[in-house]
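Lecture 7 notes: from sequence to structure.
We start with the chain below.
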Amino acid sequence: MTVPRVAAAVVAYGANLGDRRATVLAAVADLASAEGVEVTAVSDAIETVALRPQGEDPTAPAYLNGVVLLRTTLPPDDLLALLHRIEADHGRVRTEHWGDRTLDLDLVDYDGERRDDPALTLPHPRAAERAFVLRPWHQVDPDAVLPGRGRVADLLTALEATS
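Predicted structure tokens for the same chain:
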């Protein structure tokens, strides 16, 4: 019998429509109850301004953002499919790139794996640019490293110094 690989994963969450807190809590519960997934830490939620391709949009509903740390036996593609199912179960409709949403779940890191294909890029290509990912990730794992980019604490310090 083959023992399944257990991988550490980082999932960023965001929600800016509906009852954001209830949606996020329900999504974390969905992750925790999924076969092959163990939630090991959940950051505090932080409220952030909506981000659009052209920059921040203070006229849009604000987001609740945070990070969930997992241990999983699911391969990365299966974990991504699970995240998309949970988003859909909570009313996520993909109509506008970077548009408002009831729930967004991004696979930020999967056991340090580096991958670049149309379905999944690892680590998440914009994680190092997003304080709303780095700050909660640092909160739950002060020693975290974003593969290929460096320590999350250092990335966060550099990002905050430029804003």
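Points to note: The mean pLDDT is 93. The first strand starts at residue 7 and ends at 15.
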